[in-house]
Amino acid sequence: MAEAYIVDVLRTPTGRRKGGLSHVHAIDLGAHVLKALVERNGIPDDEYDDVIFGCVDTVGSQAGDIARTSWLAAGLALNVPGTTVDRQCGSSQQALHFAAQAVMSGTQDVIAVGGVQTMTQIPISTAMLAGQPLGFPDPFSGSKGWQARFGNQPVDQFYAAQRIASHWGLSRADMEAFALESHRRAIAAIQSGRFADEIVPCEGLSVDETPRETSLEKMATLEPVNPEYPDITAAVSSQTCDASAAMLVVSEAALKRYNLTPRARIHHLSVRGDDPIWHLRAPIEATRVALKKAGMRMADIDRVEINEAFASVVMAWQKELDYDPAQTNVNGGAIALGHPLGATGARLMTTLLHELEHSGKRYGLQTMCEGGGQANVTIIERLG
Q1: How far is CA 142 from the centre of its chain?
Q2: Is pLDDT above 80 for 147?
Q3: Given a cut of 90, is residue 137 above it in pLDDT?
Q4: Is there a catalytic annotation at residue 89?
Q5: Cα gap 30→71, rounded to integer Å
Q6: What is the number of other CB atoms lying within 10 angstroms of the CB of residue 99?
Q7: What letter does residue 222 receive in the DSSP assignment?
Q8: Which residue ranges does the record assign to the Thiolase N-terminal domain (predicted)?
Q9: Coil, strand or helix: which one is 23?
């Protein structure tokens, strides 16, 4: 089978809700990273085969196939199509999978991949699935098939986060300590310039504005998001934010044709489903299945980026996979850096590849929980 290569990865800073990127139209936010990607890599824009973007809540400014509209808003070639993917929080990770699969099949050679989300402009109803816009009805209401199978069990990410915490014996104090470390790592990465090479400044914003100087004492004062879920507070949950990210995925033929230097090879990609009521547990089994298919062990993986949708998600995964926290989200995660839904998968891959390069390590694994009880897993091999 043909190989798929990552040539470039980049992202905007993560803009805090109502912060530095909140006024930017979603199309323009996506256009910003696409324009930078094309300019940085020298491939004529009319020779791209496709644009595949992740985006959740494709309504309002995010409607109309934002992969295509962002490409056009960037002033790029009219002949290049685009398609927008919604696999909930894993949307732009799935966009990478679709691009890699197209290259591996031999049907495409040059693909712009990424994601965009402006959560200030289109807030989510966080009690439901990721990407349930405020003001919209419960998506399960009136579905006879869903009710017949799952009844009235809550499809609620906060419920799932609490259920995971209780099942794996994770106390609120444990999760607050995890969250504090996420902020500490992110702030350290910013102060040391660790993110400088992966960020394309946007609207005058050049660093992530989501990490916070906080303390365990401050976290302890927060009320739970719901009295029924006493251990889940805003402190141990991912932040809503505004951001976009993009990647260049190419074939071996394209590497030669355009004299490109690959930065990573797609070593493995897969996706797995789980119980939608557990909702956030899927990365555990998905990682096990991915490792088996790839013929690898966790000991072979040098760095992991797993989305910090909630502290309990990552902590349970670490317990089950027996993986070193010191090699997981080493520059902080979504609790500090934000979770811009449709862009998060591409943001994680951008950070993962740069971290492998900074540390001189070889294999990186990315996974995340996704609405409906799903999880993507991508394993890359750093080259060079």
Answers
A1: 31
A2: yes
A3: no
A4: yes
A5: 8
A6: 27
A7: P
A8: 5-252
A9: coil
For the stretch 213-237, pLDDT in tens is 999 999 999 999 999 999 999 999 9
Band (138; pLDDT cuts 50, 70, 90): confident
- At 110, the amino acid letter reads V
- Entry pTM: 0.96
**Residue 317 DSSP symbol:** H
Report the distance separating Cα 154 and Cα 270, nearest Å: 27
Report how far apart the first and last C-alpha atoms of the chain are (Å, whole number): 22
Residues 177, 216: contact at Cβ < 8 Å? yes
Amino acid at 188: A
Query: Does residue 53 contact residue 116 with C-beta atoms inside 8 Å?
Result: yes
Among candidate residues 55, 202, 241, 369, the one labeled active-site is 369
pLDDT at 150: 92
What is the rounded CA–CA span in Å between residue 12 and residue 18?
Answer: 16
Separation CA 380–CA 346 (nearest Å): 13
Type of residue found at 289: V
- Token reading at 12: 């905007």
Phi/psi at 275 (5° precision): -60, 125
Active site residue 202: no
List, for residues 326-347, the tens digit of each pLDDT value. Answer: 999 999 999 999 999 999 999 9
Q: Is 358 a catalytic residue?
A: no
Query: What's the one-letter identity of residue 323?
Result: Y
pLDDT classification of 132: cutoffs 50, 70, 90: low
Give Cα separations from 234 to 56, 103, 202, 253, 272 (angstroms).
21, 40, 27, 47, 28
CA quadruple 312, 288, 329, 207: dihedral, nearest 10: -100
Please state, rounded to an integer, the average pLDDT across all residues of the chain: 95
Residue among 97, 183, 339, 354 flagged as catalytic = 339
Lowest mean pLDDT among 57-61, 108-112, 157-161, 178-182: 57-61
Q: Which residues pair with 16 in a beta bridge?
A: 241
